[in-house]
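Regression report. Comparing outputs from two consecutive submissions.

Submission 1:
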Amino acid sequence: MVPQSSLAFYLERLTKEDNLAAVVIMNGMTISLIGQNNNIIVLDSHLHGQLGAMVGIISIEKVEELLIFVKQQLSPHYNICSLTFVNY
């Protein structure tokens, strides 16, 4: 079970509710996440060093691995973020 203080805990909502997206702000950068079936789609449009936008899809069971990867790309100074859910 994922602890309630973890972002992965809240992202499970994306696979259970229709037309719901998450906007996560970490280290001054914004990432959008959308649930589809049992997957999470990541849309991240800012630059990553010499690389451009990041778009990915991963099963909800592996969302913790995705979050570790995203944190490595963003190099956050603190292990904290802001989360907002948006209905579309």
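Submission 2:
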Amino acid sequence: MEELFVAIILETNTIIELGRKLDSFVRERPKNHSVFVTQVTIEERKSQKINDLNEKYETLDKVSRELSEIATIKQLVPIETKVAEEKTRTQTGYEKLFGKNIIPFDSSKNMFANVLERTYLKKPPYSKDPKSSDKGFKDT
């Protein structure tokens, strides 16, 4: 009997939930299991991290203004530099962890048309519930 191959494709929420356990989850698999991640998911994680950075810089700016009469706060690194570093660090981390198991993003018109068709027909990962949102667009 042929051994079954299991492909596990992680999405953003699962990666967040795994947190520090992501590395062991990916590496400690039975030999017939492989873990994949999409480039779309990696881009979403980059976006989330950049949003966190933006919040920190906004807080820094707000506190600096509020305390301007009693203190000077010096920004050591411009946000553009931190954003670029975060994008590179995140991409490199995923490449090291997943290697060739990163599913690239196909931005062709045909692929987009296929995704839209799945949206309209509510094919998985979309819910068939007529009141459901289009949640699942990035997963598709």
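Expected: both submissions complete independently.
Actual: both completed, but the second showed a warning that disappeared on reload.
Relevant detail on submission 2: The two ends are 32 Å apart (CA to CA).
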